[in-house]
Amino acid sequence: MNSTDSPAPAATGERVLSGMRPTGALHLGHYHGALKNWVQLQRDNSCWFFVADWHALTTHYESPEVIASHTHDMVVDWLAAGVDPAQATLFVQSRVPEHAELFLLLGMGTPLAWLERVPTYKEQIANLKDKDLLTYGFLGYPLLQAADILIYQARWVPVGADQVPHIEMSREIARRFNTLYGKDAGIETRARAAAQRLPEAERARLLALRRAADQEGQLEQREQARALVAASKLARADKDALLAQVDGGRRTILREPEALLTPESKLPGLDGRKMSKSYGNSIAIREERASVEQKIRRMPTDPARVRRSDPGNPDHCPVWQFHLAYSDQACREWVRRGCTSAGIGCLECKQPVIDAVLREQQPMLERAQPYLDRPHLVRDILDDGCERAQHAARETMRVVREAMGLRPGDAS
Ligand code: TRP
Ligand code: SF4
Predict the structure, then answer these.
(1) pTM of the predicted structure, to 2 decimals
(2) For domain 287-372, which CATH number applies: 1.10.240.10, 3.40.50.1240, 3.80.30.20, 3.90.780.10?
(3) How far does residue 304's CA lie from ligand 2's centre (Å)?
(4) Best label site of 66, 282, 320, 336, fewest CB within 10 Å?
């Protein structure tokens, strides 16, 4: 089953975890593409949101000095968007060094091939040509992300589609850890007896597939091994024993998380491409009023509408996308009629968008103000969140070390 087919979390207080790299002040694309969703999730779930500052270092290891201020600005925007520290735990990755310990331990048994085949790996190296990303840290990006998730035993991870392969890999890593260190001795004996009842050729094939799956982390082989057992003529109990063995005969030490796919934002950038600070087509969550007005007034429109008297086509105009995100039916009809008949001018058409964006920002500005007046409030929220996070992370690490036989006798 694909994890993205999963139902949305019910109001059961399940643990939800997500992180963002500290990029500084966020824009409306972040709001519509992620934060709005976080705010909804926090009501009915145990939400943990963190600043992935070590992840920022995997690509920006040459400029660590900006991370602290970027973290502060980003967290203010989370709070502005309505993320509520009374409902969710907000923290900073680097202040819970247990993430690094789990990352290190998971790294021991993670096949290099798993990391190399993550789609973003080669893409990013090709896209960010001006940076040397042939580093150990960048290769380890998804493994660090897996540690972030698994250390909190998170059930749901709200992310965009681009992050789904990382969550899939976190699942594989949890499964592999449970296989390696959660062995249940009884299963081996039962499985060995069951295998004796398989025809010789099938038994040999199953053994080869299991070896490949366990030692090289080959996922296809594990799938084939399961299919072989399922198709065999063995009794139910024998099949169960063999399937448990294929899956590692394990107990669950680290929980397998599931991606909770965030619906894509309807809001593009000012030029119609994806909103992104690096494209220079974004509006910040806390953008100044005058600047919002100016940016939207300067937005490109249907290139065919050169003069006011030329009719236009909203489908060729980025402003229309903003109307789709912000305007009601009546306003949209007014735009379509006015544009295609040259009945309205583009500045006129943009005014309702300007008003809607300002209206959306107003409560966010109000929520941000106390944190701008008293920055220590942000520090207090993070201090508190980091402490709670560390408490949870330490508990997992205790279980992990015990399963691996590390630090025997250490009661911490
Ligand atoms: N890789 C994520 C991104 O770029 C950020 C991230 C780091 C994350 N660790 C995480 C997201 C754990 C979810 C869970 O957006
Ligand atoms: Fe775009 Fe509106 Fe101008 Fe038509 S009238 S081109 S939709 S800005």
Answers:
(1) 0.84
(2) 1.10.240.10
(3) 10
(4) 66
